[in-house]
Every structure is written in structure tokens, then in C-alpha cells.
Amino acid sequence: MTNPNTKEQYKILLKASLTLTSFLFVGLVFIGIFKWGEMLPFIASLFIPNEISILTAVLIGLISSLFITTIVLITFIKTRTELPKTEGSDMIKKIMIRPSGIAVSAIGGGVFEEFFFRGVLIGLFIGYSITVDWLVILISTFLFWVIHVPQYKGATRILTGVFVNGLILALLFYFTGSLIPPMLAHGIYNTSIGIILAKKYKK
């Protein structure tokens, strides 16, 4: 017979998976509206770097993930930052104690969130002027921050970190023209943080 706690964890994992997958579907709807007839070429263009090779884009993503993860960990350790006691944070703790939860976080954040917030929200609306580009980047970053507020409500340092990370990921996409760097950076960051949280909260 399935353990009630295990059953609850699987339900939470399924809920998180469906939520993250929704970013993919909403993103495809946006692309369908604004790029009807050019959906596949547009999606393909999101992964092809502007003036650098794919290998360089991969290296930028790996280096960025190392930078972001190191800065966040040092900051949180020095300030002794803890996850707030919210329903969202409790869900994160329950998800991260399983390898499958860490995988969902890495893929969901690294692929689906990046596809929507950077590839779609930025990719569809840049190219008109520098002013518009920066406005689009800031709006996308703000919306990315907003979806994380329920999880980290009351934790000012964490929410500040989410906004800064979102801005860095947006700039990675903007300056390389490819989702490869932000996807790698976000996915590896989520994996690293997930492993640390798993060790901390598995008890």
C-alpha cells in the first residue's frame, strides 16, 4: 500500500509539473497569435545565437550558472537566509526532497520558464528600439518575479535574488540571441539549489 506521505508528495509533484508545463502551452499560444505561419522558424530562431557559435553559447550558460549559484549561496549562507513559512515554500521543500522533484524544477524552470519569459515575452517584442527592448526586458523580469512572490512572500532577500537572477537570464538571452545560455544557467542553478535544499529538508 502506498504511504500517505508519498502519495501527497506525488500529488504536489504533479501539480508543480502541470503549472510549469502551462508556460510552454501559453508561450505557444502567444507565438501562434503573433507569428502565425512562422511558428516553427521563430521557435528555431530562439535557439540559434546571433554572432557566436553554439559551443560559445553553451560555455556562457555554464559559466553563468556557476556565477549565479555561487553568489546566491554565499549571500544566503552569510545572511543565514531561510525559506519563509508559506504554502509555496512548503511545497518547494516537499518537492525537493526527491530526485524527481529536483528534475521537475530543473526542467520546468530551465526549459519552460525560460521559453516563456525570455524566448516568448522578450523574443516576440524586441527589435523596435533600444528603449522598447529594455522596457520589454524589465516587464518580462518583473512578471518572472511576480510568479515567485507567493512562494517567497516576506523573504525580501530571496525575492531580490529572484529579480536579479531573472534580469541576468533576460540579458543572457538578449545579448546572445539564444535561449541556450539562460536555459542552461537556470536549469543548473535550480538543480544545485534543489540538491542543497534536499539535504537540508530531507529530515
From TrEMBL:
Signal peptide: none annotated. This is CPBP family intramembrane metalloprotease. It comes from the Bacteria. InterPro entries: CAAX_protease (IPR052710), Rce1/LyrA-like_dom (IPR003675). Residues 102-191 form the CAAX prenyl protease 2/Lysostaphin resistance protein A-like domain. GO terms for molecular function: metallopeptidase activity. The chain crosses the membrane at residues 12-34, 54-74, 95-112, 124-146, 158-177. Keywords: Hydrolase, Membrane, Metalloprotease, Protease, Transmembrane, Transmembrane helix.
